[in-house]
Amino acid sequence: MPVRYTSDLAEHEAVRTNAGVFDISHMAEIFVSGPQAATFLDYALVIQSSAIAIGKAKYALICNAQGHIIDDLIVYRLAEDQFLVIANAGNREPVVSALKERAVFQGFVGVEDRSDDFALLAVQGPNAVALLQKITDKDLSTLSYYSIDEGTVDGVASYLCRTGYTGEDGFEVLIPADKAVQVFNALIELGIQPCGLAARDTLRLEAGMPLYGHELNLNINPYQAGLGRVVKLERDEDFVGKSALAELAKQEVSPVLVGLVGTGKRAARAEYPILSGENQIGEVTSGALSPTLGYPVAMGYVAKEFAQIGDEVEVDIRGTRLAMTVVKLPFYKRSK
Description:
By secondary structure, the chain is of the alpha+beta class. 19% of the residues lie in helices and 33% in strands. It has seven helices and 17 strands.
């Protein structure tokens, strides 16, 4: 996926007002199958995958034994004994390796990395569903948020996943890799704007969605990242990282991830220091001048005592201080 096809602002606006398509074929597709697939994923991930209904999906984390985040994932249940796990491109190898290692201890289960077999196109925006409906045989209205089903798109056999990473409604369309150009061009012919990495980043930031390598990494645990709700400690069965996460859940965690808003037109970028007086209290992980809202927004980790909604901090922008206020995430929510 290029940084942009036209302009960052035009592509961002297309997704917020009409529809855009992202070529996210770099993402990893891992199929987990076999009679013990659900039991295995219950052990391998922090969520209870066995509770996912067929045709549904759930946001998940895969953690190491210390309770730190290897990656964030989407888990789709395709059948009683088959799941699809979508991982971030940069974490393809760590996730596949961790799953295969954990599968050794969990009965009969197959872990198959099929990332090279598939292309993944994300169609997002308020008109995405209506436009995509024109070239699919699947009644998209029957698919609720965080669902998956099979159908055709421009005559190509596809998985249609009602998930996304922009804060808008839409679908991620999983197709054979050799059909990617055909389907991508068919979507563009519908008037859907091709969009690049820059727009994807500002869209997900406005929606308060974390990005691995920025908000999430191997030094961060779910409670710091505001993802404690994803961890299902209450279930009886063991899972990788459970004991460490149970201990972390008892502690006051610091630093923690917060949302920040400012005024003016200067953006607080990743790695800029967050200050209180003369003391550095944290660091920006992602930041931009929000195209939709018209003011600077950022996410970053700060010491717990500065993380309350309404707290005032400053960000050092190359020697100039920008006053910012801690706010509840997300910065933007679609109207319906």
